[in-house]
Amino acid sequence: MRRRLHSVRARATLGATLVVAVALVAAGAAVLLSLRSNLSGQASAEAERTAREVAVQLAAGRSYARLSLDDDDRPVQVLTEDGTLVAATEDLQRISGAGTGAVRPTAAPTTAPAGPPDDDDGDGDGDGDSDDGADEESAAGSDLRPGEIGEDTSYRDGSATVDGDTADYRFASVQVETEDRGTLTVYAGAPLSGERSAVRTALTVMLIGFPLLLAVVAGVTWLVTRRALRPVEGIRREMAAITASADLARRVPEPDTHDEVARLARTTNETLAALETAVERQRRFVADASHELRSPIASLRTQLEVGVAHPELLDVPGAVEDTVRLQNLAADLLLLARLDAGERPGRTRVDLAALAREETAHRAGVTVDAEPVEVAGSRGQLGRVLANLLDNARRHARSAVAVAVRREGRWAVVEVSDDGDGVPEADRERVFERFVRLDDARSRDDGGAGLGLAIARDVAVRHGGTLTVRETAAGGALFELRLPTTG
User: In Å, how far from its chain's centre is CA 208?
Assistant: First the structure.
């Protein structure tokens, strides 16, 4: 199980499912809150409409007994300013959350007639005068004029039992100022059963639908991920087989798509091809090196064995020559190994004109035309490049070798030319390969091991430059070394 969870397919499926689950929960909560708010708003609007309808009747002077309170079986209360219930829905049996818990109206005070006054002859008693003063104070305290309904509406939730049916209600309260009964407050309720039912239905649908949707998302993600990763598994199997067999000629399958997996397969095959080339080059290098080392070692051993048996026949100069040749070959192989390992050259400032004069000082028949130009790099390695180019030119020249050093823009250019037969155009790249000799005239005795030009080009590339060969005007070979200058 843990191994399955560690797979990309399992993690992708789990991640997609979790993201969708969070999104669904957030969206569901928003929908439920919005639905509840809208339905609660509708209930508030219905309760307010009912309260204002009753307030309009009261403002018109209608008596409590003649109020329309039983049209929709909704709980309605009318309270005086001191909280006395003076009118209520007929079948109201219990109420909470409204103006009062009373359900039966109390008789109106005798000083507050139930209807509009029938005359204004002034026969009323002192209590009536007192009531008029109270009404004026009430009107003044409510900031409403007689017959005016308050604009503000307050809401609260509660419950009520009407005709044996108990339900939750949204209550709205509205104030109305009357001419003869002072400030009255009307409480009217609208049922919340529709809201609760709609919210429960939506919640039920979500609880059933969301898991099904998550299951679909997980299944689709699993299948799509498996299909997308199938080529990756093929690449993995083939790489495992290549590793086990050490057969670098094999290649991983490339899917017929243009996605990241196809690019991965192509890059993997390119890497395998480069690795195969490098390994083959290394094998050839080892074989050639072994072959080159065998000849001087065998010659030196033969001379030593003859010297042991017949001291008078020992060819000391020949033994020394073979030893020097062996030493030079070992040094070349060591330098190539360091270059192949990626050794970075130093950043010493090197004057190529001075270096050219130094390398040609002990060589006869070499002319130098050099202007000062500095480059950054390893003086020893750049000296080896010049020495190898000069040795190669001296080996093939008829009579003269020339060296020129100059600046061309941001490049330092070193040219080594000879008056020999030159290098055929078809072989101008091959001469820089290791252990390559172009003709039979380059014997192992006088032509070297075929590493000088290969070393020269590798050093040039490591210094950010190039080494090429072309033909001189006279038909000889001209090797051109280009290196970036320091300034």
Answer: 34
Listed residues 343, 363, 385: the one ending a domain: 343
CATH of the domain at 282: 1.10.287.130
Which residue from 138, 104, 116 is spatially nearest to 59, judged by alpha carbons?
A: 116
Phi and psi angles of residue 166, each rounded to the nearest 5 degrees, phi first: -100, 135
Taking the chain (487 residues) in runs of 10, the rounded mean pLDDT of each run is 61 88 91 87 90 90 83 82 89 87 73 41 38 38 77 90 88 90 91 85 89 91 84 85 85 83 87 85 76 77 82 78 79 79 81 93 90 92 92 89 94 93 89 73 53 89 93 90 89
Strands 165-177 and 154-162, by their bridges, are antiparallel
CB-CB contact of 55 with 68 (8 Å): no
**CA dihedral in degrees (378, 384, 390, 395; nearest 10)?**
-160
Q: β-strands 85-88, 76-79: how paired?
A: antiparallel
Q: pTM to 2 decimals?
A: 0.49
> How many residues are there in the chain?
487
Q: Are 183 and 141 in contact (CB under 8 A)?
A: yes
DSSP, residue by residue, 30-67: HHHHHHHHHHHHHHHHHHHHHHHHHHHHHHTT--GGG-
User: CATH number, domain at 443?
Assistant: 3.30.565.10
Are residue 357 and residue 322 in the same domain, yes or no?
A: no
**CB atoms near residue 262 (< 10 Å):** 14
Q: So what's the pLDDT on residue 70? A: 64
* Distance separating alpha carbons of residues 405 and 402, to the nearest angstrom: 10
Can you tell me which residue has the tokens 């080009």? 457
Q: Are residues 338 and 362 in the same domain?
A: no
DSSP conformation class of 185: E
Write out the residue range of the structural domain in which residue 76 sits: 52-115+126-192
Q: For residues 255 and 231, is the Cβ–Cβ distance under 8 A? A: yes
The H-or-E segment that residue 184 falls in is strand 183-191
**Residue listed under structure tokens 């061309």:** 408
